[in-house]
Amino acid sequence: MRGKRKKRKADDLHQDVASVDDSDTSTDTAETDKYTIYKSENYCRQYPEDGGNFEYIVIYESSETRPIGDRDLMSLGASLKRGNKGIKRFKRINKYKIGAIFERPGLANSALYNTKTLKDLHLKASIPALLTETTGVIRNVPTYMSNKNIYNGLSSSRDVVSVRRLMRRGRDEDGKSCLLPTQTVALTFACPTLPDSVDIDSWYFEVSLYIPPVSQCLRCLRYGHIGKFCKNSQKCTICGEEHLYRDCPKDPKEAICVHCSGNHIAISSDCPIKKKKIEENRTKYQKVAYADLFNEKSFPTLNKSKPTDNIKNLLQCDDFVNLLISSIIKIISLNKSDETPVTSAGIKSILLDTFSTNKNRNKLKTT
Fold it and tell me: What pTM did the predictor assign?
């Protein structure tokens, strides 16, 4: 079974969907398992037979404690080519993984089930999710529905392989910190493109691309990893020194960000460095259709005018001048304050915030 098909029988569709009526809530799953990620049974990640990718890569890892990078990779590659058809070349990914690139999708899929070769060479094989799956989100899904209920009620033009409700940190009735469910649900599809919408029990839900949050370590405050795997020294989010924020003698209002030197804690969403990381993250996960690569809007128009001419044209636009003046006034106000040091990063952030809001963008478009 490769996921969830588009059509379902009416009996199956309603079998596990929780009723809004309180008298039927006993049909729902137990509260402890209600928001556990629900995955399609017997699903195995594979390349579609009709292709669509330029390369069909299979990731190999060692099934032993010894990393694959410590082995003789030249000999290992020769053994893999003898045991599998269609391998064009290999590439080292890191100490723990290598990739084998196959000529056709069917040959890459067959390598996953070549148990004899995998067992003899002490390897595990998998296909990267980025090339075969994509995740979208739907919103306004009632929180009383479990992930299994949602899966069983789904109707989609793409195979759905997992359902996960997004959670947020909050407090329960006793004031204890806990994870609370939101009305946003992430759906993973067994294809590299998202459908425009899905139905849950005949209700329409628009699907948008899921952008995972930026990883920031709460131990060393760096980006790209989380504290669970961090071996760096502890840093304070308020002052950046090597101690816990609870032990910091400074008031949070006097915080100095270790990334931009701004007047905020290092994990603040107001940090211009974090905003840049979020935008980079969005660009990384935003997928562009092949046809869009040849869309004329994707290419900058040739402009023979000089940069000074462009600046003169901008200064003749009243809306642009007014926005620039408001930014300068805001910068001067910050400079007069002893609590907020003005830096080049802070100035750039103020300018970007002023010109990037929807209202101001629309003003400039109409002029």
Answer: 0.58
Token pair 């556990």: residue? 36
CA-based nearest residue to 56, from 119, 121, 112, 131: 131
16, 24 Cβ separation under 8 angstroms: no
Indicate if the pLDDT at residue 249 is higher than 70. yes
pLDDT band per the 50, 70, 90 thresholds, residue 263: very high
Picking from 88, 92, 134, 131, the residue whose alpha carbon sits closest to that of residue 107 is 88
**Residue 329 tokens, joined:** 């006034």
Whether residue 25 is predicted with pLDDT greater than 70 in this model: the reply is no
With contact defined as beta carbons under 8 Å apart, do 321 and 328 qualify? no
10 Å Cβ neighbour count for 345?
17
Q: Please tell me the number of Cα atoms within 13 Å of 355 on its side-chain side.
A: 17
Owner of token pair 């759906």: 187
CATH fold of 56-131, please? Alpha-Beta Plaits (3.30.70)
- Measured in degrees and rounded to the nearest 5, phi and psi for residue 117 equal -65, -40
Domain boundaries, the chain: 10-43+133-209, 56-131, 217-287, 303-366
Distance CA 271, CA 252 (A): 15
Q: Where are the alpha helices (DSSP H) in 67-216?
A: 73-83, 105-112, 115-121, 129-132, 147-153
Give CA 6 to chain center in angstroms.
Answer: 26
Average pLDDT over residues 98-118: 93
**Rounded average pLDDT over 338-343:** 55
List the structure tokens of 286: 């935003």
Residue 173's CB: how many other CB atoms inside 10 A?
A: 6
How distant, in Å, are the alpha carbons of 35, 264, 338 from that of 270? 31, 8, 19
Helices (H) and strands (E) in the chain — how many of each?
11, 12
Residue 127 corresponds to which tokens in the numbers above? 């296909």
Q: Which of 31, 281, 39 is nearest to 179 (CA)?
A: 31
